[in-house]
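User: quick one, fold this
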Amino acid sequence: MKKIPLYAMAHGRSGDKGDGSNVGVMAYDQRGYEIMKEWLTTDRVKQHFGSIVRGGVDRYEMPNILGLNFILHDSLGGGGSESLKNDAQGKTHAMALLRIEIEVPDDYDPPKVGTDGALAPSGELTPAGS
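Assistant:
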């Protein structure tokens, strides 16, 4: 087994649902989806977010789009205009989740996306040809 960042095998989107955030992650391929389904549990997601998520975490599987959707309850400090948090709508929660490291089989290489493969905001993966 090896560890890779989730952003190497999936993309994500997030937003607010009242006082909770809605985080969706979609795998780039079927094998990645199967790995995510097994490894990305509600307990691991809650642990990854630490004190940001004060309530529970729900997970919904969406196999038709190779996706998992998580509801992070009580994660927005009241939500919307009630919250004093910098990200009262949870727009950064998808990127935060995509930075989690996932254990994958040694023979799993995520598909390349774009021209260089998936890059985190600070470029942790070295682009091809560098």
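User: anything notable?
Assistant: Confidence is low (pLDDT under 50) at residues 82-89, 126-130.
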